[in-house]
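sry for the spam today, last one i promise. C-alpha cells for design, 502 residues
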C-alpha cells in the first residue's frame, strides 16, 4: 500500500509518496509567488496551490512508477489561517490573505470587544491575533463588502485542495483551531463566537478528526492528477500538527523545533491546557482526542530568505556558476563568524511577531552594528536571532510546567548543520534529526495510512514509520556566551516597542 502527503506551503507545495513502512519513494515541490500589496500584507492565489498540487501528484506517480491503483489514500496539510473565499459557482472571490498578513489589528480589537478577552481565550484558547482567520473574515466584511456578499464557503488553504480533489467542504480540528472560531476544548465550531461575530456557520466546512476520511477523489480530479477515482482523502492537519506527527511528537516529553518560513516550538498535550497570557497557542492536535501547545515566531526561515534575496547576491551568482545552493555558502560564511556574532544581534520581526510579544507592529532590528562587522556576522546574527526567538517559545513551555526531555528539529532549517548546532547550544540540549525531513507532508502521509486502515492509531503508525537518525550535542563552552547574548536580545524590544507604531 502507498500513500500521498500534500503540504500546501508558503513558498511552494510539496508532495510525497511513501509506503506503509515510511520509506519515501518520490518527492516533488513546485513554487509560487507571495504578493505584498502593502507593507505588512501577504496574499497568494489559491489557483497557484492547486496547480502545484496537480503537478506534484503527477510527478511523484511518474517518479515512483507506482500503479495509481496501489495508492490507497491522500493526506492533506498546509499553511494555517489563510482565508479562501468561494462564491456559489465555486470560484475564488479574491486572493487568499495568508498567515503572516498583519492588516487586521482593528478587527482583532473588534473581536475582543464583541466576545470579551477572557471569554475568547476560554473558548478558542488564544487572544485575538492578526494571523488568525476570524480577523481576516471581518477585514473583508469591513473593507470589501462587495466581496463578502458573494461568499458561499470559507476554506483554509489545504481544504481548498480537498474541495478540488473531492468536491467536499471539510476541515480538521487542528487546522480549524487556527481560525479562532473553534471551541478548542470540545473540538467543534463555537456557536457563541460565530453568533457574536455575526458569521454564518453554514459558510464553514464540516469538522473532522485528522485521520478520518473526508471524501474520495472525484472523476474530474482523477483525470487531471492521474489518481484513481475513489482514492480516499483524509482530513489531514494544519502544517504544524501534521509536521509534529511527521516528527513523532505524539506523546509528552518530546517536542519539536521547526524552522520553516515561520518558526515553531511544539509540544503534545494529553490534557487541555492554556497559557493565561495567550503568548503560545493551544490547538487540537492531529492525534484524536489530544491537544498541543506551540509558540510561533513569524519570521524564521523567512528572515534568512529575505537576507539571501536582498543581500546575498554573491552567493546567488556563485550558484549560477558552480551549482551550489546559496544557503550552503551562507552557512559556511556564518561558521567563520564567532558565536554571538561579535555583539551583532538580530530581532526577526520582519512580519510582526506572535510569541512572546503578540505585536503586529514589531519590526526587524539589527542592533550593535560596528565597522568590524562583515557579511558573515550579519548572516550568523540572523540565524542566532531566529533561534533566540525559538528559545522564547521554549521558555514559556517551561513556565507552563510542560516536560521537555527531547528536542527534534525539522523544516528547512534542519538541513543546516550550523543552525542545528546553534539550537543545541542555545537550548543547552541535544537536538535530534529523523529519517524523514519532509515534515508536514510526511505527517499527512502518516495520517493517510491511519485513515486507510493500515494502522489503528496515529501513535502506532509513528512508532513504525519514524526513526531517529542522529543528534547534535551542545557545546558547553558556548553556554555563557549565548546566555549573555540572549539576555541582551530580550532587553531590546521592551526599550523600543513604542517606536514601531508611530
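last one done:
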Amino acid at each position: 500500500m502507498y500513500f500521498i502527503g500534500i503540504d500546501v506551503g508558503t513558498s511552494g507545495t510539496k508532495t510525497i509518496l511513501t509506503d506503509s513502512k515510511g520509506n519515501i519513494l518520490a518527492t516533488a515541490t513546485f513554487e509560487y509567488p507571495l504578493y505584498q500589496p502593502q507593507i505588512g500584507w501577504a496574499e497568494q492565489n489559491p489557483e497557484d496551490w492547486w496547480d502545484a498540487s496537480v503537478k506534484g501528484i503527477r510527478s511523484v506517480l511518474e517518479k515512483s512508477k507506482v500503479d495509481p491503483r496501489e495508492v490507497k489514500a491522500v493526506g492533506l496539510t498546509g499553511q494555517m489561517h489563510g482565508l479562501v473565499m468561494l462564491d456559489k459557482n465555486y470560484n475564488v472571490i479574491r486572493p487568499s490573505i495568508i498567515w503572516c498578513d498583519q492588516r487586521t489589528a482593528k478587527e482583532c480589537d473588534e473581536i475582543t470587544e464583541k466576545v470579551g478577552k477572557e471569554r475568547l481565550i476560554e473558548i478558542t484558547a488564544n487572544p485575538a491575533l492578526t494571523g488568525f482567520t476570524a480577523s481576516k473574515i471581518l477585514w473583508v466584511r469591513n473593507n470589501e463588502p462587495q466581496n463578502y456578499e458573494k461568499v458561499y464557503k470559507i476554506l483554509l488553504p489545504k481544504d481548498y485542495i480537498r474541495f478540488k480533489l473531492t468536491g467536499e467542504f471539510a476541515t480538521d480540528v487542528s487546522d480549524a483551531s487556527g481560525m479562532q472560531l473553534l471551541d478548542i476544548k470540545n473540538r467543534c465550531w463555537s456557536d457563541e463566537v460565530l453568533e457574536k461575530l455575526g458569521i454564518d456557520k453554514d459558510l464553514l466546512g464540516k469538522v473532522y478528526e485528522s485521520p478520518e476520511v473526508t471524501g474520495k477523489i472525484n472523476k474530474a480530479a482523477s483525470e487531471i492528477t492521474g489518481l484513481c477515482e475513489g482514492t480516499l482523502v483524509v482530513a489531514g492537519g494544519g502544517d504544524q500538527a501534521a509536521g509534529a506527527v511527521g516528527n513523532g511528537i505524539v506523546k509528552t516529553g518530546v517536542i519539536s523545533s521547526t524552522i520553516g518560513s515561520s518558526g515553531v516550538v511544539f509540544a503534545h498535550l494529553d490534557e487541555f491546557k492554556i497559557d493565561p497570557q495567550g503568548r503560545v497557542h493551544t490547538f487540537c492536535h492531529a492525534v484524536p482526542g489530544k491537544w498541543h501547545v506551540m509558540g510561533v515566531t513569524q519570521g524564521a526561515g523567512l528572515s534568512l530568505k529575505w537576507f539571501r534575496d536582498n543581500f546575498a547576491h554573491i552567493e546567488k551568482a556563485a550558484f549560477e556558476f558552480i551549482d551550489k545552493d546559496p544557503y550552503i555558502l551562507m552557512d559556511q560564511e556564518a561558521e567563520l563568524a564567532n558565536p554571538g556574532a561579535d555583539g551583532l544581534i538580530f530581532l526577526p520581526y520582519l512580519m510582526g511577531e506572535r510569541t512572546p510579544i503578540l505585536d503586529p507592529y514589531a519590526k526587524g532590528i539589527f542592533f550593535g552594528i560596528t565597522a568590524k562587522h562583515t557579511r558573515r556576522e550579519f548572516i550568523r546574527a540572523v540565524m542566532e536571532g531566529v533561534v533566540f526567538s525559538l528559545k522564547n517559545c521554549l521558555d514559556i513551555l517551561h513556565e507552563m510546567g510542560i516536560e521537555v526531555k527531547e528536542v527534534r528539529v525539522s523544516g528547512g532549517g534542519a538541513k543546516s548543520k550550523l543552525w542545528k548546532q546553534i539550537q543545541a547550544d542555545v537550548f543547552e540540549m541535544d537536538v535530534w534529526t529523523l529519517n524523514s525531513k519532509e515534515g508536514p507532508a510526511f505527517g499527512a502521509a502518516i495520517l493517510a495510512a491511519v485513515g486507510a486502515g493500515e494502522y489503528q492509531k496515529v501513535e502506532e503508525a509513528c512508532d513504525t514509520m519514524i526513526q531517529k537518525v542522529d543528534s547534535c550535542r551542545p557545546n558547553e563552552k558556548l553556554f555563557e556566551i549565548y546566555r549573555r547574548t540572549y539576555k541582551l536580545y530580550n532587553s531590546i524590544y521592551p526599550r523600543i516597542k513604542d517606536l514601531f507604531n508611530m
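The chain has two domains: 2-247+439-466, 301-433+470-499. ok im logging off now
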